[in-house]
């Protein structure tokens, strides 16, 4: 038996099966958005591998077989050794940024809250800038420094926001404070550097996928495999947090523990992604908002946001490699130029009351 | 976001001016006391700013040089330092603080978002983009040349943000405005870094401008930007009661007889005038506009008739104190004011957030 009351709540349908006894809510639009975004992301992924940096031409239909290990050796080498790692970093970091942004925006109930507004990205930036300026941790890569900086910032924000429990509001405000301290430190260090150092660090600070490979992709993949299932499991509790702390507690949600788990998980995702690519700004902020408007859900949807983030970063990276013939512009420049008009278009055409914010 | 339930409900007829001292019951004395204390602190900090620097000047000589030029007890060099270099620097700091604090308070009231700051509507990004275009594309390096580019960038960014944020049903709602502002900010920042990264000369100048500096301005510059600032201040203060209505929600504000479109337009114009001018002159000074309204709100409550003047007085104090500290700690070098402001303000701000129950927006 299948009972659908789509008339009462547009965008969602309920079903109830007698054998086995299962009932639930189906959001056809959300599933459609998932499938579309996944298809778009995979399409861009293959296109990025076919037309990525380098002169060796790979035909688009050859990409998928080559990924599975069939094709002539030259194509296999170009696809699996040269272009796949970079595309993987783009895919994974985009997904991590998108998911982290969705969690932060839900926890704080603020569409502007994202790891790059709340100081986690800036923590990574300050750590890397200090590394370049003082030559500390000479052996440590900017990847490690960025990871340490971002995780420190995330934990610091949570600890400082703790005063007999946290609130989303306090996390936002403490995050702003941490963010500006880190930004000031970075700007100060950059203005005191030699010009060649400044150019290097500014290149890192806008986020770039140049020279990224398996060394960056592997830790990020582990982080995603570990954290994303936790976040998916927490989705049910997270949804009650949107109703406010009192209501959530009344519904039986352990408010403080849920929030701690959410903030730490999202910080870790953002930290690993930032460590891999540098702060690719805007993805974490825009992806959840774009996904929310595509899926017409009341809060940023986690999976759709991750898929949107992956698609944005992949597409931006493809453009950044091919736009200028003589140089590869940093992907962070492209995400802003590409993602911003898309978000604006989404804002402008959202004419349903409520979906416009 | 919940509102402070102790706040007086402003009505359309409730238009008493802050100077009239008709503060409603909950905080009868704290508000005038805050204004008085901030005013005293401002005067003291101004004098300190004239006296302290790489060469310290005793306070009595400062006062004499100020009010009695040509006095035999003051040597001409001291008088020159006090009456030109440090005076202009102090005036710029006061103007910048006033403008940024006021703009921040207006932005937060208008968008009902605690994250709102003058950078939010794309104002700072517009100014930065204009400046980099002036340097990188047109090769203009003089301040009075690039200031118009910065101003143009600011204006275009604000207008685009407002038009895009107000499309669709529901008009310019706080979230749409804020999101449109952030989107434009990232768009322009990306373009700015794109230009700065491909042009080493533009990068070199941009990174100094982008860290914010109060020095190197003369009376001519100040005179030229003063009308813009004055217009911005008047415009901002004129919408204080309207912002109180908006704090109750858009529907209530309309029911109280506010024309939301007009109020938002005036607020956006005021913010553009205030921050656009200051950003063009001293570079992007962030944090001040964001934090000061939160600090003032702790004392005055959410009533904008007190919040706006309070922010106007407290913000210059923060900026002056930051500037003085920046001169002293790394002698003979100086640390830029925006960095000190963030470094000083952030721990203080975090401590406040932790200790007190915040008057939420």
TrEMBL record, chain A:
<dbReference type="InterPro" id="IPR000522">
    <property type="entry name" value="ABC_transptr_permease_BtuC"/>
</dbReference>
<feature type="transmembrane region" description="Helical">
    <location>
        <begin position="260"/>
        <end position="286"/>
    </location>
</feature>
<keyword id="KW-0812">Transmembrane</keyword>
<protein>
    <submittedName>
        <fullName>Iron chelate uptake ABC transporter family permease subunit</fullName>
    </submittedName>
</protein>
<comment type="similarity">
    <text>Belongs to the binding-protein-dependent transport system permease family. FecCD subfamily.</text>
</comment>
<feature type="transmembrane region" description="Helical">
    <location>
        <begin position="298"/>
        <end position="315"/>
    </location>
</feature>
<keyword id="KW-1133">Transmembrane helix</keyword>
<feature type="transmembrane region" description="Helical">
    <location>
        <begin position="119"/>
        <end position="137"/>
    </location>
</feature>
<feature type="transmembrane region" description="Helical">
    <location>
        <begin position="87"/>
        <end position="107"/>
    </location>
</feature>
<keyword id="KW-0472">Membrane</keyword>
<dbReference type="Pfam" id="PF01032">
    <property type="entry name" value="FecCD"/>
</dbReference>
<keyword id="KW-0813">Transport</keyword>
<dbReference type="GO" id="GO:0033214">
    <property type="term" value="P:siderophore-iron import into cell"/>
</dbReference>
<keyword id="KW-1003">Cell membrane</keyword>
<feature type="transmembrane region" description="Helical">
    <location>
        <begin position="31"/>
        <end position="51"/>
    </location>
</feature>
<dbReference type="InterPro" id="IPR037294">
    <property type="entry name" value="ABC_BtuC-like"/>
</dbReference>
<dbReference type="GO" id="GO:0022857">
    <property type="term" value="F:transmembrane transporter activity"/>
</dbReference>
<feature type="transmembrane region" description="Helical">
    <location>
        <begin position="327"/>
        <end position="345"/>
    </location>
</feature>
<feature type="transmembrane region" description="Helical">
    <location>
        <begin position="168"/>
        <end position="190"/>
    </location>
</feature>
<feature type="transmembrane region" description="Helical">
    <location>
        <begin position="220"/>
        <end position="237"/>
    </location>
</feature>
<feature type="transmembrane region" description="Helical">
    <location>
        <begin position="144"/>
        <end position="162"/>
    </location>
</feature>
<dbReference type="GO" id="GO:0005886">
    <property type="term" value="C:plasma membrane"/>
</dbReference>
């Amino acid at each position: 038996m299948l009972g659908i009351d789509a008339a009462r709540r547009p965008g969602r349908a309920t079903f109830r099966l007698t054998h086995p006894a299962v009932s639930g809510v189906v959001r056809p639009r959300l599933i459609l958005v998932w499938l579309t975004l996944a298809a778009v992301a995979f399409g861009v992924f293959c296109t990025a591998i076919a037309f990525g940096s380098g002169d060796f031409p790979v035909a688009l239909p050859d990409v998928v077989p080559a990924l599975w290990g069939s094709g002539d050796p030259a194509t296999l080498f170009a696809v699996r050794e040269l272009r796949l790692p970079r595309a993987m970093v783009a895919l994974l970091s985009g997904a991590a940024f998108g998911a982290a942004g969705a969690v932060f925006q839900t926890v704080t109930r603020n569409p502007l809250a994202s790891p790059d507004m709340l100081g986690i990205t800036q923590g990574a930036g300050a750590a890397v800038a200090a590394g370049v300026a003082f030559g500390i941790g000479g052996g440590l890569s900017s990847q490690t420094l960025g990871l340490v900086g971002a995780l420190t910032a995330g934990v610091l924000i949570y600890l400082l926001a703790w005063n007999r429990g946290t609130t989303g509001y306090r996390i936002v405000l403490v995050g702003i404070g941490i963010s500006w301290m880190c930004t000031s430190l970075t700007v100060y260090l950059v203005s005191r550097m030699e010009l060649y150092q400044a150019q290097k660090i500014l290149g890192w600070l806008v986020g770039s996928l140049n020279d990224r490979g398996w060394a960056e992709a592997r830790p990020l993949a582990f982080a995603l495999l570990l954290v994303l299932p936790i976040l998916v499991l927490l989705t049910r509790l997270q949804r009650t947090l949107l109703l406010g702390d009192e209501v959530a507690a009344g519904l039986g949600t352990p408010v403080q523990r849920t929030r701690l788990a959410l903030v730490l998980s999202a910080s870790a995702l953002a930290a690993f992604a930032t460590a891999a690519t540098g702060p690719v700004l805007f993805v974490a902020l825009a992806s959840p908002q774009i996904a929310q408007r595509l899926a017409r859900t009341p809060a940023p949807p986690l999976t759709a946001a991750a898929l949107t983030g992956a698609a944005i970063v992949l597409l931006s990276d493809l453009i950044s490699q091919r736009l200028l013939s003589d140089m590869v512009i940093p992907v962070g420049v492209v995400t802003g130029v590409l993602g911003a008009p898309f978000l604006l278009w989404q804002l402008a055409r959202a004419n349903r009351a409520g979906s416009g914010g | 976001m919940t509102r402070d339930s102790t706040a007086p409900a402003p009505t359309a007829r409730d238009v008493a001016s802050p100077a009239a001292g008709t503060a409603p019951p909950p905080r009868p004395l704290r508000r005038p006391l805050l204004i008085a204390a901030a005013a005293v602190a401002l005067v003291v900090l101004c004098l300190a700013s004239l006296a302290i620097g790489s060469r310290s000047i005793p306070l009595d000589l400062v006062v004499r040089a100020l009010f009695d030029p040509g006095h035999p007890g003051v040597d001409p060099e001291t008088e020159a330092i006090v009456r030109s270099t440090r005076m202009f620097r102090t005036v710029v700091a006061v103007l910048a603080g006033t403008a940024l604090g006021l703009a921040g308070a207006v932005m937060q009231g208008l968008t009902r978002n605690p994250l709102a700051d003058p950078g939010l509507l794309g104002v700072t990004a517009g100014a930065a983009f204009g400046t980099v275009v002036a340097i990188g594309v047109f090769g203009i390096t003089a301040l009075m040349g690039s200031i118009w580019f910065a101003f143009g960038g600011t204006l275009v960014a604000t207008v685009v943000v407002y038009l895009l944020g107000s499309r669709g049903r529901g008009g310019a709602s706080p979230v749409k405005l804020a999101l449109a502002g952030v989107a434009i900010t990232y768009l322009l920042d990306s373009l700015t870094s794109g230009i700065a990264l491909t042009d080493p000369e533009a990068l070199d100048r941009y990174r100094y401008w982008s860290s914010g500096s109060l020095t190197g301005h003369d009376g001519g510059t100040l005179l030229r930007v003063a009308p813009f600032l004055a217009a911005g201040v008047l415009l901002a203060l004129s919408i204080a009661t309207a912002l109180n209505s908006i704090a109750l929600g858009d529907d209530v504000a309309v029911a109280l007889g506010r024309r939301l479109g007009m109020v938002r337009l005036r607020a956006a114009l005021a913010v553009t005038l205030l921050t656009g001018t200051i950003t063009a002159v001293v570079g992007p000074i962030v944090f001040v506009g964001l934090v000061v309204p939160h600090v003032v709100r702790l004392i005055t409550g959410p009533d904008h008739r007190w919040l706006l003047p309070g922010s106007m007085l407290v913000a210059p104090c923060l900026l002056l104190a930051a500037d003085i500290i920046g001169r002293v700690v790394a002698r003979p070098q100086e640390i830029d004011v925006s960095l000190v402001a963030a470094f000083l303000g952030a721990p203080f701000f975090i401590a406040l957030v932790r200790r007190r129950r915040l008057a939420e927006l």
